[in-house]
Amino acid sequence: MAKLINQLFIALALCVMCASCSSPRKILYFQDIEEVKAIKIPAEYEPKIMKDDKLQIIVSGPDKTVVTPYNLTLNSGTNGSNSVIPYLVDSDGNIDMPGIGRIHVEGMRRVELVDYITKTLKVQGLVKEPVVSVSFLNYRITVLGEVRSPGTYTMPSERTTILQAIGMAGDLALTGNHKKVMIIRDENGVQTHTTVDLTSAEVLNSPYFYMHQNDVIYVPQTTTRIAQGTSGIGLVSAFLSLITTTIALLSIFK
Fold this sequence. Notes:
wza like fold, alpha+beta, 2 domains, Outer membrane lipoprotein wza fold like, 30% helix
């Protein structure tokens, strides 16, 4: 009887090991990366300005008095410190700048708006040697679903990839489906969505590899992962039950 019990325990241990190591490659990123020799970074990764965006626009030049009207500020305290007021893109896609007037910025990239304002100031002779900077103040991405820390995150750079965004959310949970990560994006006022496969290096060439402001990443739960986990547990339970039954029968008929 002791020999039979030992054999059952050995079989149980082997089955548990097999269940826990059934398919590790299914959770790896870029499984076919060795087949891709080089990836060309798409030129269209820069996000475009959208309605309701908040833009920080700062104009500087040799004469600080001349550039003051272009920099919207608010006196924020008794110590005389000022805070910059953002330009809000209205429902028609416009902003209003002092001295320049209404600018239709929707669809522009940040560098395009910088060039436009700089050239306008030079042509009109409003500012000598102007230096213009434009930045997004609401460049946020929401990550939901099977990640460790779902939520909305402010991106540190416009050149933010889906991997960086997921990394800020603590990476995918074990129950996350790497093959069907959904990205929801607002394109010209229309909500679009697509799915990307993070196990394939082809995602590096996807127009959704670089994030846009207000993108939503949703990681669904994988039924395969759940099945693997529950099957392992079920296997252990079945063998424990088998051992218990065998011991009981042997004790009866010994």
